[in-house]
Design a protein that fits this description.
By secondary structure, this protein is an alpha+beta fold. The chain contains nine helices and 17 strands.
C-alpha cells in the first residue's frame, strides 16, 4: 500500500462544506489518470475516464465522500476566550473529552484542546450524566483578546490526529471516508482496459445528508452507481456475535442494505462473482443503522442500479478509526475488477 496518499488524505481537514483542501489532493492524485476533471457548485470533484466500447456506453459512477465530521464555532467567551461549538455530523460526545483540535480561520490554523469540567469539581448528579456537546469547550491557550483577533463565529474545527500503522492496521481521524477516496483512486490506477464510461466522484457533505452525491449523480445520470465507504466493524469485546456487522481482516464488505439503500441484487451477485473468480476475500454486510452515498445514487433521476463496497472499520466517528490493510487492498482489487467488466450484465430488476 502507498501510505503517503492515504496519510495526506486522512490528515487533511475538511468538514462538510469546507472540503477544498481534500479536493486539491484528490485532483492532484487523479491528474494524468483521467480524461477530464472538474468541480461543481457544491465542490464535488468529478473525474471522467471514457470507455473503449461502442456508444452509447454504460455510465458507471463511483462515489466516495471527502467530508469528515467536525464543528463550527458558535460563541467566543468575551472574558476567557473559550470557544463553544456546534457539531457538523454525528458525534458521540464521550470520544471528545481531552482531544486536540485545529481551529481553521481566515488568519490561520490554531491548535487547541477540548475541555470540560474536571471530575474533581463535578457534583454527584453530574458524575452520573453522560457528557453532552454543550458541556465541551475549546481552549486555544491564548488570551481572550488574542482569540477574538484570530477567530470568528463560523470558523471550522477539525479533530487533530496523525495517521499511524500498528500491527496490521492503519488508524487516523477521518478514515471515514478518506480511505474510500484512496480505494477509488488506487482502483482506477489498477484498471487495465474498460468499456464503460467511468465517473469518479469525490463527494461533499455526505455526513449531513448525502448532499454532494445527490447533485453530482443528477448531473451524471449514471446507469450504475457504486459508493465506496467505511462500515462498522464491531468485532470488539462486549458486542455479541450477531451484532458485529463486519470483522477486520475478513475482507472487503459487500453491502446488502443500510438505512438509506437496499443494494441492487444483480450488482451484489456480480461483485461476489468477481471476488470469487479473483480470489478476493470478502464478507457480506447488513448494516442496521447508517447509510452511504448509494442512497442518492439509487434515486437519481429515473433511478440507477446501486450498491456499496465497504471497508470494515473499528471506532468510526472517533480520532482512532482503524482499518485492516488487507481489507483495504481487497476493496481496491474488487472495485478495479468491477470497473473492467461493468458493461457486462443486466442490472435492472
Amino acid at each position: 500500500m502507498q501510505m503517503e496518499l492515504l496519510q495526506r488524505l486522512a490528515e487533511a481537514p475538511g468538514i462538510p462544506g469546507r472540503e477544498e483542501k481534500v479536493s486539491e489532493i484528490v485532483k492532484e492524485a487523479l491528474e494524468g489518470h483521467v480524461d477530464e476533471i472538474r468541480t461543481d457548485v457544491l465542490g464535488n470533484v468529478i473525474a471522467q475516464k471514457s470507455g473503449g466500447g461502442d456508444a452509447p456506453r454504460v455510465k458507471v459512477m463511483i462515489a466516495a465522500h471527502m467530508d469528515e465530521i467536525g464543528f463550527f464555532i458558535t460563541h467566543i467567551d468575551e472574558k476567557t476566550g473559550f470557544l463553544r461549538i456546534d457539531p457538523v455530523g454525528g458525534f458521540d460526545p464521550r470520544v471528545l473529552i481531552a482531544q486536540r483540535v485545529v481551529v481553521h480561520s481566515d488568519s490561520g490554523d490554531y491548535v487547541g484542546v477540548m475541555g470540560t469540567k474536571p471530575v474533581h469539581v463535578l457534583k454527584e448528579e453530574e458524575k452520573k450524566k453522560a457528557p453532552e456537546i454543550e458541556d465541551i469547550f475549546i481552549d486555544l491557550g491564548i488570551s481572550a483578546d488574542a482569540v477574538k483577533e484570530k477567530v470568528r463565529v463560523g470558523d471550522s474545527v477539525t479533530l487533530k490526529q496523525d495517521l499511524v500503522e500498528f500491527g496490521e492496521l492503519v488508524s487516523c481521524k477521518a478514515l471515514d471516508d478518506r480511505v474510500g477516496i484512496y480505494v477509488m483512486i488506487e482502483a482506477l490506477r489498477k484498471v487495465r482496459g474498460h468499456e464503460a464510461d467511468i465517473y469518479l466522484v469525490a463527494t461533499t457533505q455526505e455526513e449531513v445528508g448525502i448532499r454532494g452525491a445527490r447533485v453530482s449523480s443528477f448531473g451524471i445520470a449514471p446507469d450504475i452507481g457504486i459508493a465506496v465507504d467505511v462500515t462498522v466493524a464491531c468485532d470488539i469485546p462486549g458486542v455479541e456475535e450477531p451484532r458485529r456487522v463486519t470483522r477486520l481482516g475478513e475482507g472487503v464488505a459487500i453491502k446488502v442494505k443500510d438505512s438509506l439503500s437496499i443494494s441492487n441484487p444483480h450488482l451484489v451477485r456480480k461483485l461476489k462473482e468477481i471476488a470469487e473468480e479473483k480470489g478476493i476475500k470478502y464478507q457480506m454486510e447488513v448494516l442496521p443503522r447508517g447509510g452511504t452515498d448509494a442512497g442518492a445514487l439509487q434515486l437519481t433521476r429515473e433511478g440507477a442500479a446501486a450498491a456499496t463496497i465497504s471497508i470494515p472499520t473499528r471506532y468510526i466517528h472517533s480520532v482512532v478509526e482503524s482499518a485492516h490493510k488487507k481489507d483495504i487492498e481487497a476493496a481496491i482489487d474488487l472495485l478495479a475488477g468491477f470497473l473492467e467488466v461493468a458493461h457486462q450484465g443486466k442490472y435492472t430488476l
